[in-house]
């Protein structure tokens, strides 16, 4: 075992780590349990390989050492080969086999996700939030957990006197992922209490370490100043256990990160779907490092008798066979539950507070948002706000966080590096810890590096964990064109977001809605993306004065999924069949207000406010009132949310429509040009909307 010498850790380097006889026996028994599980799966591959799985064969020693280092108040992010970690913390083979076969009583997901993908919230066990199969993607949520612990400790909000540690387990090949580097950067920048365990078996799938990397994780992480690092022999249980005990002790005492690099053999297939005999020629070499005979030899050296060891081996085999027999006969899931747990129930189901309290003054949208966040921070000490440039020096490029850092301190309001993936993905870890993150992506055009985390980690967690781990995450995203912003500061992205199931998307068009929806988004236990139009922030764009409203009181809150009639048509126009509804959101409200002046009393404006969940009942009721509808968007129209909504309306309301459901949006171009006159040509305007309304009303 090698440890970089520092004043913090060298004093403990030679400290004796004792291993009791009982722990040795437990390790040997569980190694044979894991090995027999792998053998059983292979012998019964017609059944066990129906669903793709990996096993821990060859990795048992380091994984058990990690499991034995975890405590019940800790958190873990294992990867898909870590079944021995699960056995080591106390999970039973039967439970794991239920997941292998996608059975009803799979304790993690109820048959929804792969073997070795735990979601565990059980008394007396470390907490293991859901994570995806995406390679290395667990590094950011795991670091977010450590960041959440760090934050709660800074605010004296952690219950009890325990010092939780996060274990993040990764294969060495995954360290080449850029998102892993983002996690390392934040871990050292904020001194986060996390152990990164790197299991290096020299293989990806069919790619060798030499093909994939110029250096292993131990050498790579030397560039992250402040990251302790250690090498252990991952096939030697004693070396692994001693090393990980020192690593965990270091993190518990110093509240700072460490990376442990463990060299291990790969003795099984990459997965059941990619078999070792197809491509590997080094199997005999890897067998020389099999941790099971190595531990057997160590136990004999320490006085264990063959008869004692054979008894343990036989008992492990018998146990696994019995567990398999139980699992194979277990019930399959009830197919009627397939829709359950898309979202966790929200407590916000009714509008509360006063939208226009006595003595209220008018406020612009950006200030309404600022005041909403201020209220949240004041009343919820577990809340924090971070993103690019939101800290004290600037308070956001739109001043949307002005004064907050000065008011609440740099631990609660802080700048991040330019790391959209970390900004988004860390909120999953924060949520698991109990910290409630409000984060900001500086411009919608720069959200794309964060989409991987949004899709793979945040959106799927509630569904795949059977509701155990919904992710409370409020992601603020300034959006839209506002006159000369150009191709990287003007884009609209709602259709892309709406193709991500398991997240909510909110799009307010005025200050009152901004404040009420922001509060609801914060209290929602699910991921919410709050789209905030930059052109409406200050009501400086001509025609957007209406975005400035009287400020609601601090108790005002609007349930997500409720549209609002922004402008009514006259009863006379409706009765005469001379009216229509424009279904829109954001800037579309103000283009329609201006355009409708040419058609007095004929145009209702339905402001959706929330795009998912959609107020479908409100939409259908509006269309049935008027029998004519236009769906208006700022996005390029082709294949957009607006076109999709129009298609749904056409299907539902076909028999009562007096005209085709019309749609209008931006030109189908890949970017918004910088020149303001070119921008006007691409985007909708009030004048263009007026032409469409005329066509619709006169159809």
Automatic annotation (TrEMBL):
Query: Which keywords has UniProt assigned to this entry?
Result: Oxidoreductase, Thiamine pyrophosphate
Residues covered by the Transketolase-like pyrimidine-binding domain: 363-539
- Enumerate the cofactors the protein uses: thiamine diphosphate
What residue range is the signal peptide? none
Q: Which biological process terms from the Gene Ontology are attached to this UniProt entry?
A: branched-chain amino acid catabolic process; response to nutrient
Q: Which GO terms describe its molecular function?
A: branched-chain 2-oxo acid dehydrogenase activity
Highest taxon in the source lineage: Bacteria
Q: What is its EC number?
A: 1.2.4.4
Recorded hits in Pfam families, A to Z, give: E1_dh, Transket_pyr, Transketolase_C
Q: What does this protein do?
A: E1 component of the 2-oxoglutarate dehydrogenase (OGDH) complex which catalyzes the decarboxylation of 2-oxoglutarate, the first step in the conversion of 2-oxoglutarate to succinyl-CoA and CO(2).
Kindly give the PANTHER family that the UniProt entry links to this protein.
2-OXOISOVALERATE DEHYDROGENASE SUBUNIT BETA, MITOCHONDRIAL, 2-OXOISOVALERATE DEHYDROGENASE SUBUNIT BETA-RELATED
Q: What is this protein called?
A: 3-methyl-2-oxobutanoate dehydrogenase (2-methylpropanoyl-transferring)
